């Protein structure tokens, strides 16, 4: 039942993705990552190994996006805000490790209870891991967009 595999994977993903993350549209590089993942998964036809390779590549890209956005923010923020960004980054890294441990335990329990398609559990695990990074990237992107909205428009010279 090839049509049920994507549905089963999405159902496994649903419990850990907060509702606010589901309603946000990806922006910037995140939009590209999401589109490329979708295209790769479609090309892989949701077969477990090729789809897992797609998800792993997207995971690497989300990690890079978090680093890129953090560096951009660090360049444009003032001293006090940079210190707050660093504190936020440190707290997020601790929370990230806890979230990733939850993902591992959750999928371990699914495997132990023989719930879900065992061939798709590694893919589901990777997509959950990606979601942790994606949420941080989207948050940092919103901060950058907020700064851009606050920037005054350059004065146009009249001819």
Condensed summary:
This protein is mainly α.
Describe this structure in words.
The longest helix is centred in the middle third of the chain and has 34 residues, at 79-112. This protein is mainly α and 159 residues long. The protein is built from six helices and no strands. Residues 14-26 have low confidence and may be disordered. The radius of gyration is 19 Å and the shape is flat. The chain has one domain (26-144). The N and C termini lie far apart (66 Å).
Give me the number of helical elements.
6
Cα-atom radius of gyration? 19 Å
The proportion of residues forming helix, as a percent range, comes to over 70%
- The dominant shape is flat
User: Largest beta sheet, briefly?
Assistant: none
Strand content: under 5%
Count of separate structural domains: 1
What are the secondary-structure elements, in order, as H or E?
A: HHHHHH
Secondary-structure-based class equals: mainly alpha
Topology diagram in text:
Elements: H1 4-13, H2 19-23, H3 29-44, H4 48-76, H5 79-112, H6 121-150
Helix pairs in contact: 1-6, 3-4, 4-5, 4-6, 5-6
Features:
78% helix; mainly alpha
